[in-house]
Each structure stands twice: as C-alpha cells, then as structure tokens.
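User: Show me an example of a complex going from sequences to structure tokens.

Assistant: Sure. Here are the input components:
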Amino acid sequence: MTEDTDHIDEHEGSVPFYRRQIVIFISGSVVIAFMLVLVSMALYGSSGAAQLDLSRPGYQSVQDQVDRTDTFESFPANGPVTVAILEQFQKLFDRQVKPVDNSEAFSPAALEYQALDLDAPTEDN
Amino acid sequence: MKSVIFSLAALIATSFLLTSLPAAAQSEVMTDAHIDRIKSNCQAALGTLSRIHANDAPAYINRNQTYFSISDKLMAHLNSRLTLNRFDATDLVKTASSFNTALAKFRTSYKQYDETMSEVLKIDCRRQPVSFYDKVGETRQQRQKVNESVRQLQSLIDQYRDGVQAFKVKHMEQLTGGRS
C-alpha cells in the first residue's frame, strides 16, 4: 500500500505543475465559451432578434425586399402649436402611415386547407 | 389507504381520458382518403408554405419598423409638443400608449407564428400527415392573431388621426392665437 502511494507520488511529481493548470485552464475556457454561446442563442431566440435576421438560411432571396434606408420623416418635438402646425402634422401622418395602411396583411386565408389542397376529399372524387 | 389509492387512480385515468379526447376525435374525423390526399399534396403545400414564410419576414421587418417610427417619431413627438405648450393631450397620450402595447403584441404574436411555421416546415409530412395537418391548422390560428394585431394597430392609427382632428376643433380658439 505504501509502495503504491509512493509510486503514484513519484509519477505525479514527474508531470510539470503548469501542465495540469494549462489543461484545466483550456477545458474551463471551452466550457465557459460553450455556456456563453448557449446563453446568447437563447437570447437571440427569445428577444425576437431572430425574426429580424434575414441572414438566416432561406431568407437570402428576400433580403432586397427590406427597406434599408430610413426615410421616415420625423415631426419636431419642440415649437409652437398652431392650426397650421397641426395641419402640417396631419399631412405628414397620413403620408407616413400609407405603407402600413392595409389590414389584410398576414391574412390567414393563405393557410386555409382548401388553398393548400389539404382539405378532405369530396365524395365525388 | 385503499380509498386514497383508488381516488388517485381514478383521477389519473380521468385526466388521461380528457387529454386524449381531442386527438381521438381528430383521428375519427380524418378518413384514409383524406390522409392519402394530404400525403400526395403535402410536398406542394410545403413549397407554398415555404414561400409564404420567406415573404412574411421582410413584410414583418418593414411593418415593425414603420409602426415603431409612427410611435416614436410622430405620436410621441406631437404629444410632447402639446404637453410642452401646456395643452391637455391626455386622449392622444392614451392612444399612443395603447399603440405601443399593440405593437408589443404584434411582435409577440409574429414570433409565435414564425416559430410554429418553422416547425411545420420541418415535419416529414409523408410520414406524419396528421401531425402536419394539425400543425398547419395551428399555424393558421397564429397567423390570424398576427392579422388581428395588424387590424388593432390600424384602428389605433385611425383613432389617433381622429384624436388630432378632435383636438384641433376643440382648441381652435387657442390655436389661432398660437401658444408658444
């Protein structure tokens, strides 16, 4: 028993002390990096950032449909309020809301079973 | 002791029956001919769904940006300007606040829809035609929720527009004098 212990101590003594520390340091770094990747992926999915990311596979073809230039004209937050100013705001407001002036966006009709030919077959067929 | 075990067993059996009822009802309704139809048409349906999914993304991004700008660069700025000029803009502030809440709901419902649609596109529809069929139905319901959010936002935009007009009429006298 004593001989065995001496043998192990002798063997461990032959390994330089910094070697074990390097192994622990590298494995620790890999584990921490892996955990950070998991956390960032979870945040990417839960925050809604994924829905705004068109670099995902399958979206390259529609990237050019996104309006990248911010042409939205802002209304000044300071200054007097007169009838003319309010009319100016109304004109600006009507012009700026035009791109979203369509309540039919994301209509569920596109996913109806009939539209996808997945509805139950009629008895005639 | 026996009665306790019996009650527990009855409770588990009842809950199992209740949870399995919708699935059983679904299977009963679906005929073999219907399942065959799903299997034969599902590849084409997947192609259509894939295109819809791809086109939805830029539509969502553009809409989300425009809604945010309407709130941030128009509604908030006018409300701020009216308040700075000591006008009572409570109604407009309330509408703007509802708009922000509706915008958050729009984002959440789109996220859920997008995730479900991604799951649909991953299903092997020839092997799991019933699951595919059910998931398409679920996705349609979630798309309906996105559409409802769009309608709600549209309604709040109209409400804000009407509010500005009402404000103008109500404060016509003061506005003609021009406060600053």
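The lines above are the inputs; the final block is the predicted structure for all two components together. Helices of chain B lie at 2-29, 32-84, 90-122, 129-170, 172-177.
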